[in-house]
Amino acid sequence: MIAYFNNDFIDKDLVRISPDDRGFLLADGLYEVLRSYGGKLFRAADHIARLNYGARHLRLSQGDFSYLVPVAEELLRRNGLAEAEATVYFQVTRGAAKRTHAFPAQPPPLTVYGLPSPFDAQAMLRRMESGVAAITLPDQRWARCDMKTVGLTANVLANQAAHEAGAAEAILVRDGVLIEGTHSNFMAVFGGTLVTAPTSNYILSGITRKAVLELCARHGVPVELRPIYASEFHQAEEAMIVGTTVEVTPVLTVDGRPVGSGRPGPVARRLQELFAAEVGRPWPQG
Ligand code: PDD
Which of 31, 32, 33, 199, when mutated, tests ligand 1's pocket best, judged by the most ligand atoms within 8 Å of its CB? Predict the structure, then answer.
């Protein structure tokens, strides 16, 4: 694969990241995962805006990472993915310097890395069609989940626990609220209304979440932005996870208990249909 590394396009195997890199030593950096549909990046400007936001708040950079959009397109081209379903991963760290907790006295150049991958859309579409299981776990992450930092230890452990339980996702619970998944946002349906947590420092402001909420507004699907309490969840008619790699995937059981009918519900199906139109995919699936 051809990767992007500090202003160059080079063979991925030739990328040399310093052991002093603060991303490696301290998880002092940010990442993004973009989706490309047939070579067209999905809402790239939103991903860049989130990266810029994180970079400002981490005090990595006041700059604008918009230049990564043509980089992503070039990565897709150079790797023969211009027509394919793919993801593009970017990571930006504070760079390589002698290990100190405080920022290096002489700021090193940022480390900027990008790599595309083919995306198995068929596997995702099967899960979107069938629905998945989820478990709940205490949210053990820090209090700045609005920044997409590479420090994912709590997400990794929770996602592994989900896998070991035969579930696709762990929904993280903080103060009695079903906040979001380890790599997706969480939504539920009560009385026909789509409910999801408002943006805050406790969730990642998902690009898919934003797209889904816009589609709801445009197509008259009622929405309420408020916390989903664990204590009310037994009344939910539907639940779903939304994200770059899951799009809109119905959650059929949580902790082994069925949600609503235990089958993908009408709101999830409607959102899948609207999302398919948004990304130019035929609907219904063949
Ligand atoms: N994760 N919440 C968390 C904690 C996430 O890690 C993600 C995405 C989302 C959904 O955001 P978006 O719609 O912008 O993908 C919500 C990426 C895909 C990942 O870590 O691989």
Answer: 33
